[in-house]
What we know:
The protein is α/β, with parallel strands linked by helices. Helix content is 44%, strand content 18%. It is built from eleven helices and twelve strands. Strands 6-11-10-9-8-7 form a six-stranded parallel beta sheet. Strands 3-5-1-12 form a four-stranded antiparallel beta sheet, with helices on one face. A two-stranded antiparallel sheet has the order 2-4. Helix 1 (10-25) packs across helix 4 (97-127), helix 3 packs antiparallel against helix 4 and helix 8 (206-215) runs parallel beside helix 9 (228-238).
Amino acid sequence: MTTLxxxxxxxxxxxxxxxxxxEDLAPAGDxxxxxxxxxxxxxxxxxNARAPGVVSGMQLAALAFRLVDPSLQVQVLLPDGSAxxxxxxxxxxxxxxxxxxxxxxxxxxxxxxxxxxxxxxxAFVARAQGHRARITCTRKTTPGLRLVEKQAVLHGGxxxxxxxxxxxxxxxxNHIAAAGGIAAVxxxxxxxxxxxxxxxxxxxxxxxxAEVLDEGGADAVLLDNMHTATLARAVAMIGGRLIAxxxxxxxxxxxxxxxxxxxxxxxxxxxxxxxGTLDLGLDF
Length: 284
């Protein structure tokens, strides 16, 4: 069973929500609600699921409502990481009707997007069950939203890859070309890298993998765009000496057979760059 992550500090989330709320409300506020709703009208609303999936973004949605009006009463009924079915009530909001409507779209945009990521992640994780492989995301995230999109991956039962270029050393094919080859790039890493940093290197062929194993200096190897049979041979060559990560062309249909090769991780860019939006709605 996957342990869900603790909530992120609101301090980190507020800038994202303030920017989205300003985009929706500037420069003159909600003209429709101002015109048709009498001042001080109070109402109760519910955020409901209209499709099955895995919930994420409840913390974001709740914060959106509170930023518009701190007096709104917000109760999360299905927390992030929960499975939902059509008709399930995820959140209840009560208070000033105009304030609820002012935050509605931003709350739904974040909750729908994050729940879509969590739902897709859960589908990939389910396909890998029974094997050691763990599903992990990549840096292929929406600009500005990496923190919350990676949190949604965790809510779906996946793992996080590095958050940025300063997290770890990941030597890609272009680094190898610029440095003059595998031997040269690993020698430079050994000379320059902090002992606190893990080093991963990408290979496309078994010959490159053999060279990495001979040279040493890496903690993990990224097996990029390899056929499933080649991945199995690569895992046998590695023999547990390095962490083995499979990447490239990872679809739901292929995950089970890739996991069966014995790789430790399968990185899937689609978790964040191709996830849909879970259908959610706010009802008075």
